[in-house]
Design a protein that fits this description.
The chain is mainly beta. The protein is built from no helices and eight strands. The strands form two sheets. It has a six-stranded antiparallel β-sheet, with no helix packed on it.
């Protein structure tokens, strides 16, 4: 698998939910307080300069789209959607 251009293929890190002060458990999908999500980079396109394979990154959670390859779920984002490289 190889990304094209400025695209990056990632696998998002599974995040746990959060319990509110009132004791209500919010699953990760319902958390409005988190704008960015952590992921591991699988591969990058040929014009991506700042991010390398196996980097851990934070990206805008509203960015990109999901793909399934060989029964594995991946997310494809643009280089501009990366906000932090760990």
């Amino acid at each position: 698998m190889k990304a094209v251009g400025k695209y990056i293929v990632i696998t998002p890190v599974k995040e746990v939910g959060k319990e509110t002060k009132g004791g209500v458990f919010l699953p990760e999908q319902s958390r409005e307080d988190i704008r960015y999500r952590e992921a591991s980079v699988v591969c990058t396109g040929e014009t991506v300069v700042a991010v390398k394979e196996k980097d851990n990154i934070y990206y805008d959670r509203h960015a990109g789209f999901n793909v399934e390859i060989d029964k594995e779920q991946y997310k494809v984002i643009k280089e501009q959607d990366v906000v932090i490289i760990l």
